[in-house]
Amino acid sequence: MGKKKVMVIDDVELNRVILKEAFKNDYEVLEAENGALGLKKIKENQDEISAVFLDIIMPEMDGFAVLQELNISSLIQKIPVFLITTDATSAVIERAYDYGAVDVIPKPFNLMIIKRRVQNMIEYFEAKRQSDSDVVQIDQLLAMQRKDLNQAVGALIGQICESIESRSVGESEHVNRVRKMTRALTKEFALQHPEFGLKDDIIDAIANASVLHDVGKIFVREEILAKAGNLPPEEMAEIQVAPTYGAKLLNRVQGIPEPFYTFAKEICRSHMERWDGKGYPDGLKENQIPISAQLAGLAEAYDVLISTRVYKQAYSHEKAVQMILDGECGTFNPDLIECLKKAAAEFEKIILEK
User: Fold this and answer.
1) Distance CA 112, CA 116 (A)
2) Residue 141 burial by CB count (10 A; 0-12/13-18/19+): exposed, middle or buried?
3) Greater model confidence, 142 or 44
4) How far apart are CA 253 and CA 259, in angstroms?
5) Phi and psi of 103, rounded to 5°?
6) What is the pLDDT of residues 235-290, one digit of tens each?
7) H/E segment holding residue 179
8) Using CA atoms, how far apart are residues 9 and 156, in angstroms rounded to an integer?
9) Is 171:163 a contact under the CB 8 Å cutoff?
10) Could you give the angle at the alpha carbon of 335 between the alpha carbons of 333 and 341, nearest 5°?
11) Are 297 and 270 in contact (CB under 8 A)?
12) Among 70, 87, 90, which Cα is nearest to 79's?
């Protein structure tokens, strides 16, 4: 790797020569006699430039105009800029700092002081860049770890939930389909509503957590789960309280990673809530219902419709979608309904998979 670079932008050749002599042993010194040319060279060499010396009064583009462009491109945050001037008044200094310059160096130059001040600032910016890079790498690593861990935990708990589901529906693939449908619906919702910040690792966590939507059924008597036809009120009450028991069970479990854990508890307790407040167990309405539970709840409602159950025959994909749009499964978030329309083709692919 070659020398790091410093940039000297000054229309007076003597000033450029003085600064070049001062820094040539440690840096490759780039020169420009006006602001426009200097800005072009900064952008071309931005990853190698350690500092910029910038005069104020120059032809074509003055120093403050250059500072303004560096602010627009965010380069002012990455490269220390030293303003050099014969007019080191308080007004000039204040304006320079407002534009992001790190220091103002008066002319004529005191090279010993300049070199010390510049070197200190260069070292500070390099340390900051390294720190920022480390933070980005750590965030990326943690995101990868969360994704891998969420997938592993999701797969393990999915196997448990398949056993639970098979008690009531004889359809162990239900939770796997709900997971895939929740992912498809959440991806569409993330695309349509970026304000929620649902990045890929969060989408995966919500989808994997959806396998726990009916874990509360473990507390429901098997004869109720296997019963065809309408349930009497006391048995229906046992079904409706199951999400609460499931959430309480999850609250006692330790070692489940975040955000998977939070989404799992939200989905388990609230996936049967409905937008108009007529769901259960808590009668939540609209955005009182966690978005994770709204997404998984809509996916689960669709899959129940297209599945054969002891109390019903399976509906076709088209009929299931229309029943949801018509509110026959309770009301859902209108934004999610629009996403369902766009994701419906993907849902149909999922149910046709072997």
Assistant:
1) 6
2) exposed
3) 44
4) 14
5) -165, 160
6) 888 889 989 988 988 888 776 778 888 999 999 999 999 999 999 999 999 999 99
7) helix 174-192
8) 62
9) no
10) 105
11) yes
12) 70
Residues forming beta bridges with residue 328, ordered by sequence position: 330
Angle, vertex CA 121, rays to CA 118 and CA 125, nearest 5: 135
64: left (phi over 0), alpha (psi -120 to 50) or beta: alpha
Asked if the bond preceding 281 is cis, omega within 30° of 0, the reply is: yes
Cα 348-335-320 angle, rounded to 5 deg: 30
CB 109 within 8 A of CB 82: no
Structure tokens, 231: 């349930």
Residue type at position 322: Q
pLDDT for residue 140? 57
> Peptide bond before 108: cis, by omega within 30 degrees of 0?
yes
Distance CA(84)–CA(65), nearest Å, equals 14
Rounded to a whole number, what is the largest CA-CA distance in the chain?
96
Measured distance CA(212)–CA(267) in Å, rounded: 7
- The per-residue pLDDT for 299 is 97
Structure tokens at 337: 């309904």
Say how far apart CA 69 and CA 292 lie, in whole Å. Answer: 43
Token code pair at residue 78: 């990455």
- List the structure tokens of 349: 């692919």
Cα(268)–Cα(119) distance, integer angstroms: 58
Q: Which two tokens stand for residue 115?
A: 């070199």
Task: Give CA–CA dist 349/246, Å, rounded.
Answer: 30
Vertex 231: Cα angle to 240 and 296 (nearest 5): 40
Token look-up 């220390």 returns 80
- Please give the structure tokens belonging to residue 290: 């966690």
Judging by beta carbons within 10 Å of its beta carbon (0-12, 13-18, 19+), is residue 116 exposed, middle or buried? exposed
Contact 254, 291 (CB under 8 A): no
